[in-house]
TrEMBL record:
Originating organism: Thermococcus gorgonarius
Top-level taxonomic group: Archaea
Protein name: Transcription regulator AsnC/Lrp ligand binding domain-containing protein
Length: 92
């Protein structure tokens, strides 16, 4: 089974709401308030997660962007990440 990875972006919510999110991520200061990498075992799990987000956030002020390609290399000297999201989402 192939896991689905996605990038979660949240904006326009208070800090108290971000603290209740069920994922670990980074708080941002700018256009977006929060970013996280999330994994799902299947599409149904991702849809259930989105329903939970709407309840916690109180609306649709988030983007859940499925990742098409993902790679991470870490060693003592350097580290890098490659992430590609679908072009139709307007982020490429």
């Amino acid at each position: 089974m192939i896991k689905t990875e996605a990038v979660l972006l949240v904006w326009g919510v208070r800090d108290e709401v971000l603290e209740r999110l069920p994922v670990r991520g980074e708080w941002l200061y700018g256009e977006y308030d929060f970013i996280a990498r999330v994994e799902f075992s299947d599409k149904a799990e991702m849809e259930a997660f989105e329903k939970l987000l709407v309840k916690i956030i109180g609306g649709h002020t988030y983007k859940l962007l499925p990742v098409m390609i993902s790679a991470v290399k870490r060693n003592e000297d350097d580290s890098f990440s490659i992430v590609e999201v679908p072009g139709e989402l307007g982020l490429v």
